[in-house]
């Protein structure tokens, strides 16, 4: 799809495999809910066809516009991570084309180490071309969502600890500019609505998702468009909108994929674009996130969007990102000095035992990532075993020096 | 789920081509049941399995080769055999773009190009035209190409066949006027399909087949006459057509 945030799907001087032509469905078993499809199929396509039939994906990230292969390779997570884990926890198996060993079918039991290396392995172990996923039955395409405004990030973290278990889906929107970087937060948390509880006007077609108007950012905005004042204005508007209600019934597209309603939203950030910085820390290091937010404010790097989430147990992949704790995602428009500032953040994160997300990282140093992912050596060994000549690589694997190491 | 027996059906010739697959999905999305006709059995099976998985109905298949003229009069019968009646409409996505350098000096290939892109499609549609006219209902949707709008040095065999098809469809529209049968000519520009793999073309001119399929199916179901996909190809081809020949032959378009 070409939608990656970082350099995991870039390869300067080499070729990039665009997999979206492999988008055929292969089989669906309505008893077990297992869907067999080619890896270039987008999540959007799956939802389009299966939600009307009463099935949904158990894990979806903040966008529908990614492929199944990409979801496995990044072991993506969603708003229900604290309950259901990440994407690969719901993958039955996949067929992986490896440079040295040809096609290998991997599942958590069969070829377990290759499965674990590929889940979150950012595409470096081979080309995923088929996958079987478990879908989840739903009665309606609607969720009942509760809004909980919190005066600052620390308060939001405490609320998450206390009451997150009551919600299947939970996420927080952080206003990174408020209160000198203390970050007021609105938690939006919800559960699927059973068909019987739907408002009467939705009962006729409980599985129909209303179409949204298609907005688009027509061209790249100049960089001054996103400035502290405009971001504050936007945030104030958002805050008002969220606080105007305590609870609401909203459709799954609006809850899960708010950004998909604005095509080419990345153009907002101007010519130099943005860096999405996703920091995850263990439960005991929650303070690190408040510190990050405070520092970014003090250093004048204003995040346009901030997202807070509490993670559950870690993923099956050797390089799976989630771990029990909290994750804070900040979108920084690229400005002079951002790289140096983010390197400082990396050090802070490392001190607190946190980690960055390979799907989004674009700046970190090799030793930083190595310290964050204890199973990296294991991963590199598996990779050396299936691709000894390093046929597959990316800007990320070169930046992090993985192409010269055998584990 | 609607019972497949009650769904309106559409026969898609060339149903395994990249555009054919996308159009089949688009018809399915709108509650139509596609019948796929194609040459490559394995690809036909995969395409059917894809559609069947999407909505849990069975997709009938017909072995079809655009160059096998003798079999074409049997097509309506073959449809009756698999769906029990005539389809509501017929769509052709058959297209073959031969390598321009080979086709110039290979008469076999030149003949194949004309047969697959022109003769075979005409002989496939003719039996349906008669039956649809008697029934006084139905639609034909045929994918030609913007290439047929003007002969160029890079693909004139292909363009000649497509232009011939355009004129055939024009004639059909004339004949079928007022009969309740609609005839739609779909003229795509460059689509991101196997057909253009290996060509170096400006990215801005390339359209995803999924997007083209939506527009094509819209046009066919609305009974439009001639549509360019995307629409702006109409302007481009207008410009290409009005260049006077003495000038045109000097260009490198």
Task: Describe what this molecule looks like in 3D.
The complex is a heterodimer of chains A (407) and B (253). Chain A is 26% helix and 23% strand. By secondary structure, chain A is α+β, with helices and mostly antiparallel strands. Chain A has 2 domains: 25-137, Uridine Diphospho-n-acetylenolpyruvylglucosamine Reductase, domain 3 (2-Layer Sandwich), CATH 3.30.465.10; 142-367, Vanillyl-alcohol Oxidase, Chain A, domain 3 (3-Layer(aba) Sandwich), CATH 3.40.462. In chain A, the strands form 4 sheets. In chain A, strands 12-8-10-9-15-16-14-17 form an 8-stranded antiparallel beta sheet. In chain A, a hairpin with an 8-residue loop joins strand 9 and strand 10. The longest helix of chain A has 16 residues, at 228-243. Chain A is globular, with a radius of gyration of 21 Å. The two termini of chain A are 30 Å apart. The mean pLDDT of chain A is 95. Chain B has helices spanning 18-29, 41-55, 75-83, 100-105, 107-135, 156-176, 209-221, 233-242, 245-248; strands spanning 9-13, 33-38, 61-63, 89-92, 138-143, 181-188, 190-191, 206-207, 226-229. Chain B has one domain: Rossmann fold (3-Layer(aba) Sandwich), CATH 3.40.50. Helix content of chain B is 47%, strand content 16%. The termini of chain B are far apart. The mean pLDDT of chain B is 95. The longest helix of chain B is centred in the middle third of the chain and has 29 residues, at 107-135. In chain B, strand 5 (138-143), helix 6 (156-176) and strand 6 form a beta-alpha-beta unit. The radius of gyration of chain B is 18 Å and the shape is globular. Chain B is α/β, with parallel strands linked by helices and 253 residues long. In chain B, the strands form 2 sheets. A 7-stranded parallel beta sheet of chain B has the order 3-2-1-4-5-6-9, sandwiched between helices. In chain B, strands 7-8 form a two-stranded parallel sheet.
Map the helices and strands.
The complex is a heterodimer of chains A (407) and B (253).
Chain A lengths: L24 E5 L4 E5 L4 H8 L4 E2 L11 H6 L7 H4 L6 E8 L3 E5 L5 H7 L8 E8 L1 E2 L4 E9 L2 H11 L5 E7 L8 E9 L22 E2 L11 H16 L3 E5 H5 L5 E2 L10 E9 L3 H13 L7 E6 L13 E9 L4 H14 L3 E2 L9 H7 L3 H11 L8 H5 L8
Chain B lengths: L8 E5 L4 H12 L3 E6 L2 H15 L5 E3 L11 H9 L5 E4 L7 H6 L1 H29 L2 E6 L12 H21 L4 E8 L1 E2 L14 E2 L1 H13 L4 E4 L3 H10 L2 H4 L5
Parallel strand pairs in B: 1-2, 1-4, 2-3, 4-5, 5-6, 6-9, 7-8
Helix pairs in contact in B: 1-7, 5-6
